[in-house]
Amino acid sequence: ALAFLPLAIAGVSTWYVYQRPPVVHVDFEKNYEGAFVDGFHDHEKMDGRGFRWTAGDAHIHLENLPRKSRLRVEVRIKGLRPREIPLPHVGFTANGATVFETVCAPGLVAYRFGVTLPGSSLVLGIQSDVFVPSAIGRNDDRVLGVQVFSVHVEPQGGEIDVVAPVGWMIATAALLVGAGWVAGLSLPISTAGVTLFSSGLVYLMSLDSVRFLPYAQTLALLAGLTLIVAATTRAVLAWAGWPHRDERPVVVAAIAVSFLIKMSVLFFPLFVSSDADFQANRLLNVLEGDFYTTSVSQHVPPFRIPYPISLYVLAVPFAAAGIDRVAVLK
After folding, report:
1. Which of 22, 59, 279, 308 to pair with 157, CA 20 to 30 A apart?
2. What are residue 177's phi and psi, to 5 degrees?
3. Backbone angles phi, psi at 272, to 5 degrees
4. pTM beyond cutoff 0.90
């Protein structure tokens, strides 16, 4: 019965998280949008405000919304254009169906519209006219649509279905209990540790709009990998005969817990790496055949710094298959 305690706590606490008002706010200004979006260029700032340019056809993905609900959507957009190019036409889609179209007004504008959602998932599309700055003499060859600063979604009514996230979190706790058993820890210690750690993971899920992402599935996957790490580490240490058998469970548990903490934080949707885009650009260099990728130092005079490419070489097959470069490097 003791082994089921962390499973019950993980399930009940996850259920409680989803009882809060299901309001989604994807904040581009804080750089918290990365896990929600595709079809956007990298995050950047202008006048102290964070945003992303669309590439013409961009999407925001949301999960675990109330079924059969009416959504009030607000998207804050700036259709910035050089003087010689007219303001763009912009359209919004919900799961592929057009719900609102207009011509961008000057400046930063909040566009509001309603969406009827039969299921629990929403793919909010933003489609607009594009331009290429380099075609008018600017030093930028990207295809640019509009600048997006935030997306706010507020469901009205509907039925909240928490079966999937609750099930994933129970599976996470069960796999972590299994990892503790594989490591050789006693049941009371393993149960106490998993209960504490699972509560921390549920807390992470409660932050901002993380509960509207498939983060619970990610945690279950990481818990399964932690179980594999524990089993592999125990087998290797047993083969090596080190350390003493009585001390081995502590070493195995320490390695497994370190792995889980590192991965759960690294894959946390709101985790912002200060050099993620920099490393992704180095990976892009290698993808383009540059095996002596460098960057310029800030010294006077500046000099070029080479980077070892083994990490990028390992990442090339996955990035070439279309997986986001930052996700691959993580």
Report:
1. 59
2. -60, -40
3. -115, 115
4. no
Nearest CA among 169, 170, 173 for reference residue 205:
169
Q: What is the pLDDT of residue 136?
A: 86
Query: b/e per residue, 167-187, with b = 16+ CB within 10 A?
Result: ebbbbbbbbbbbbbebbbbee
CA 283 to chain CA centroid, Å, is: 19
Please give the Cα distance from 202 to 221 (Å, whole number): 15
How far CA 287 is from CA of 1, 182, 183, 254, 317, in Å, comes to 52, 40, 40, 36, 9
User: Are residues 213 and 26 in contact, defined by beta-carbon separation less than 8 angstroms?
Assistant: no
CA–CA gap between residue 249 and residue 258 (Å, rounded): 14
Rounded CA separation 314/327 (Å): 13
Instruction: Show the tokens assigned to 155.
Output: 């469901």
Residue among 159, 180, 168, 165 nearest 15 (CA): 165
In the chain, % helix, strand, coil (3-state, to 5) comes to 40, 25, 30
Considering the chain, what percentage of its residues have pLDDT values greater than 90?
65
Tracing tokens 């719900």 back to the chain, one arrives at 99
Model confidence pLDDT, tens digit, residues 281-302: 888 888 888 888 888 887 888 8
